[in-house]
Design a protein that fits this description.
- The longest helix is centred in the N-terminal third of the chain and has 50 residues.
- The protein folds into three domains: 158 residues, no CATH class; 101 residues, Helix Hairpins (Orthogonal Bundle); 149 residues, Heat Shock Protein 90, CATH 3.30.565.10.
- The strands form three sheets. A five-stranded mixed sheet has the order 6-8-9-11-10. The protein has a four-stranded antiparallel sheet with strand order 1-4-3-2. The protein has a two-stranded antiparallel ribbon with strand order 5-7.
- It has 436 residues and is α+β, with helices and mostly antiparallel strands.
- It contains nine helices and eleven strands.
- Helices cover 53% and strands 17% of the residues.
- α1 packs antiparallel against α3 and α8 packs antiparallel against α9.
- A hairpin with a 2-residue loop joins β8 and β9.
């Protein structure tokens, strides 16, 4: 079936006009027919009134005094017959006991509309007209009022089609302008000259295009930053590999293999984080009910060797057992990146605590460390991809918090950084509605 708005609107309006026109035509015909019949009755009454006064001075000639049926038969052009009783002979179809007023009488094959008027004198005036003649006059009169209306209906239908096509022309032009937009940099659509009903839709499209442009800008920056971040470790690996070939002894080889291995590990971690960020932005993993408490214990066990290597006290503080509905991979990625950052920046012999609690039917996951923390002005910037605070030391790529925020957005949660209540340090907090 056709889903064209223009065709459906034209067809619906044309059909509505046709039905309304037909209804109006029928009503007009009935009213005109009824008015014509009433007019004819009034005419009979007026004729009878006019002949009451002049009947005595103008008697009918003897040649006209004959049976009404004979008159109609002999004079087919006659439409109205006037009879004055008792001067004129009484027709066979007229009985003497009829009261004054209108009557419908049958004489042979004809029907007559008769008006009888009595006068103060013994005289009675009878005005008669054949009903067939009356009907013909009434129908002709009604048809004359009906024909213009019937001719107007198709004209209105054609006008509706033209008007609808003309009013919807801006939408066609709008689709052409959208097709001509560049795919890499779409521009907002001007709403000048568009109907008010279409304007909110255009504003919604413009907001969508603005978000698309923003995302595409982020993607372009991400690709540029990723290329820059990958070039540095790959260049270092190339130099270290060349130095390895120039080693003159086995001890020199062993000495130069260590930085090469570290460079390979950094490149591997960076590549893995880039893949995680791309996978998180795609958001293709399904949701399930996640036992956060069990996941937290698994992560503590996974990071415990790294914590022990730096003498960090890594622990789990489970204030409230938590379950949430989320993507298990995305939620794990959020907590994992938070733990990696905390262990990286916590001092040797420091503390890192993974805390689970519930606030106002929200599940809250916190990673608390006693590291240097993040200044308040920098707490939003550190969530940008590849951003590292000035003066930061270490081997981070600046992707961990960016991955965590992207995953949180996909899950409908929020991530934020806060001051540690006791002493120096930082609190990474993820909040999401709890599974009920």
């Amino acid at each position: 079936m056709s889903r064209s708005l223009q065709r459906r609107l034209s067809r619906t309006l044309a059909l509505a006009i046709l039905l309304a026109g037909l209804a109006a035509a029928v009503a007009s015909f009935v009213l005109a027919y009824s008015d014509a019949k009433e007019f004819q009755d009034d005419m009979l009454r007026q004729i009878a009134t006019l002949h009451v006064g002049g009947a005595a001075e103008s008697p009918l000639p003897e040649s006209r005094r004959q049976d009404a049926r004979d008159i109609f038969t002999s004079d087919p052009e006659s439409r109205i017959m006037i009879i004055h009783l008792p001067r004129d002979p009484r027709p066979s179809w007229l009985s003497g006991d009829l009261p004054p007023g209108f009557h419908t009488l049958i004489t042979g094959s004809e029907r007559l509309r008769v008006f009888i008027r009595d006068t103060p004198s013994p005289e009675r005036t009878v005005v008669a007209q054949p009903i067939d003649v009356r009907d013909e006059i009434a129908i002709n009169s009604a048809l004359r009022t009906l024909i213009p209306l019937l001719l107007l209906v198709p004209v209105l239908a054609l006008l509706i089609v033209r008007i609808v096509r003309s009013e919807l022309a801006p939408i066609t032009q709008l689709s052409k302008s959208l097709d001509e937009q560049p795919a890499d940099r779409p521009q907002p659509i001007a709403d000048d000259g568009l109907p008010d009903e279409i304007t909110p839709f255009i504003h919604a499209i413009n907001r969508l295009l603005e978000r698309v442009n923003h995302l595409m800008g982020q993607q372009r920056r991400f690709i540029a930053d990723a290329a820059h971040e990958l070039r540095s470790p790959l260049t270092a690996l190339s130099v270290q590999a060349q130095n390895l070939t120039r080693a003159g002894s086995l001890d020199a080889v062993r000495e130069r293999v260590v930085p090469l291995q570290k460079g390979i590990e950094r490149a591997r971690q960076l590549t893995e984080q880039l893949l995680n960020l791309a996978r998180t932005q795609a958001g293709t993993s399904g949701e399930a009910v996640v036992d956060v408490s069990a996941m937290a214990r698994e992560l503590i066990a996974e990071f415990l060797p790294r914590a022990e290597a730096k003498g960090i006290d890594l622990g789990l503080e489970e204030i409230t057992p938590l379950t949430v509905r989320a993507s298990p991979e995305a939620l794990r990625l959020i907590v994992k990146n938070a733990l990696e950052n905390a262990l990286r920046y916590a001092p040797d012999g420091g503390e890192v605590t993974l805390r689970l609690l519930s606030e106002h039917n929200n599940a809250v996951i916190e990673v608390v460390d006693n590291g240097p923390g993040v200044p308040v002005p920098e707490r939003e910037h550190v969530f940008d991809a590849f951003y590292r605070m000035p003066g930061t030391t270490g081997e981070g790529s600046g992707l961990g918090l960016s991955i965590a925020r992207e995953a949180a957005i996909r899950l409908g949660g929020t991530v934020s950084l806060h001051e540690r209540q006791e002493g120096c340090g930082l609190v990474f907090r993820y909040r999401q509605r709890r599974e009920t």
